[in-house]
């Protein structure tokens, strides 16, 4: 497989990898970080030791190990497994895709891995064993117990997490959203820090006010986006709705970081629509 084919395969797998990483670490935003680290590791590993023929299992194993490393670094508490005598059939496909990332995070690591790979992504038990580095019997056991655990967790209603913001923070974000709605991008550019960083996820990164200012040109040319103040996984965010669609769910979102009333970081998920799949979001106005 040449470099072009390899990179094309990584691009094809990116949405599936994000579904796995996001559910493994319990956050669509953190899942994107883990995904990017996974892709970097895959590129480096291929240069040093080309993968076997099964590229998908190879890179999912990298994603699995990267997710586990991320979780261990955060020192998440382990969840006690449930008894074996609980019904272990999978949730219907229409239901499992709506289970939040936070709910998946409550499963123990091996159970979470098995359920995501089998019931969300369609891998076989044998492939799960390869990715998780365990026996097929252990993978099958983790799958059965994980299904039972997830079924109970999915029945528990979740409260939407809302961000804790000071009034100053809220007014600052309200102003930013209002200027976006009005197309006053000069006012927005004036809010940028000199060393502002832009991560247009899955597309490009830019740094510095002059370079990042160009980013707003695309939004200035579009008329189909509607910008709303909201939250993503408990963090203040700009929710972006497509007026040509149903308007029932954002098409993507934008995260901002500030320092002394200046925007220091913009993370825009316009080109990563998979990130909105089951993220916890809420409108704040």
Count of individual domains: 2
Q: Could you name the CATH topology of the largest domain?
A: Butyryl-CoA Dehydrogenase, subunit A, domain 3
Largest sheet, if any?
7 strands, mixed
Q: Sum up the overall morphology in one term.
A: globular
In CATH terms, the superfamily of the largest domain is PhyR, sigma-like (SL) domain
CATH architecture of the largest domain: Up-down Bundle
The N- to C-terminal Cα distance equals: 50 Å
- What value does the average pLDDT take? 85
Q: Tally the helices: what do you get? A: 12
| Percent of residues in beta strands | 15-25%
- How many runs of DSSP E, i.e. beta strands? 7
Low-confidence stretches: 76-87
CATH domain class name of the largest domain: Mainly Alpha
Radius of gyration: 20 Å
